[in-house]
Amino acid sequence: MRGGRGGGVGGGKIRRNRGPVPPPHPVGNMRLLNGGKLPFDLTFFEEIFPRVTPAPDDSILSTALLKRNGDIAPTTEEIQTVQNLVTRIQSILETLILTPGTFDACQVDEVRQVGSFKQGTILAGHKTADFVVILKTLPTREAVEALCNRVADELRQTECVRSTVTSRGFDLSNVQATVRVLITTVPHNIRKLDADIHLDSKIVNEHWQAIRHSRWFEENCHNSTVKVLIRLLRDMRQRYPGFQPISTWMLDLLAHYAVMNNPGPNRQALPINVAFRRTIALMATGMYLPGYAGTSMRGHNLTYEDQDLATATAQTLLRVLAQGGFRVILGLETCKGLDIIGSSSVWDAVVVSPLEKVYEKPVDGEQDKIDDDQDAEEEDESTMEA
């Protein structure tokens, strides 16, 4: 069958589609992400599918979500230690823009702070901030190293720091925090990059995307519920291997959509408990499958195996959530030492078992198996209709 989990992934072997194809979304009420289609979203169909039982009291879930957010949020002291290093490095880089003096290894055009620390969504213990430095000149490896040494020498006048040149730029660390400086160049220089001399053009482009991501976040994510949901999702990504390939950018977009995109008359933000349930449901119904919004964005880097595993993980969590197991999902409790994703668990006499893989990586000689199977199914259906 075409569509569903694993549908449309050419070259792969599909076992069986799970469930019927959902009805299409009302066009006027949906704002698609990145041009991809959206999976079934019950938020827009509550009138078509009315509840048969009263809505559960979600006050306990809301309390648990806020408690977990408090547990994984950094302390004021952690934030301040990172901010102190950020302020010093930003001051040094901005001075190089205005008065470079004898420093001529490269020309700094602009400095932009990006990443989780800038957004206010970092996790406790992650004492790292990110800058993107835009160079007017070509980003040679020698220029990056010279810039690293210049900034590090300035810092060492007042404190002990460690500097490390990386494939993306350089890192500067003291005993309390780390700042990653990511290097890019002005757009018209990108076509001139030589892989033997300069930073990789793919990496340079990714740093431009980080700037766009940061700008989008500043313009769209003012709501505190969005930031809370992002932090919760990042925490879950650390604890569930199936979510680890999902990028920060993908989680940010999903959290914003789940909170802000709703059919209400004033498009008011949804409360955290509703947005959390909606997020898990969207992931479970195919947000990160081929052709859907989650995988239509540039540079998502999810393999078919990643997409299958992420969706299966979300489907298992959705079933656990339906049985009231949110405290285990959030990491507030354990399920008698069991891995709820890899092992069967029991919730009030309801057994939740892990799902089998739907996508299987093809072996030699099976590249066209999916197309042959689909053509045979379509011929059978046509014969039956006739």
From TrEMBL:
Any single Pfam family the record assigns to this protein: DZF_C
Keywords associated with the record: Activator, DNA-binding, Nucleus, Transcription, Transcription regulation
An annotated GO cellular component: catalytic step 2 spliceosome
UniProt biased composition (Gly residues): 1-12
Keyword Nucleus: yes
Biased composition (Acidic residues): 369-386
Record's subcellular location: Nucleus
Region (Disordered): 1-29, 362-386
Stretches assigned to the DZF domain: 38-374
GO molecular function: DNA binding; double-stranded RNA binding
PROSITE patterns assigned to the protein according to its UniProt record, in alphabetical order: 25A_SYNTH_3 (PS50152), DZF (PS51703)
Gene Ontology biological process: positive regulation of DNA-templated transcription
PANTHER family: INTERLEUKIN ENHANCER-BINDING FACTOR (PTHR46447), INTERLEUKIN ENHANCER-BINDING FACTOR 2 (PTHR46447:SF1)
UniProt protein name: Interleukin enhancer-binding factor 2
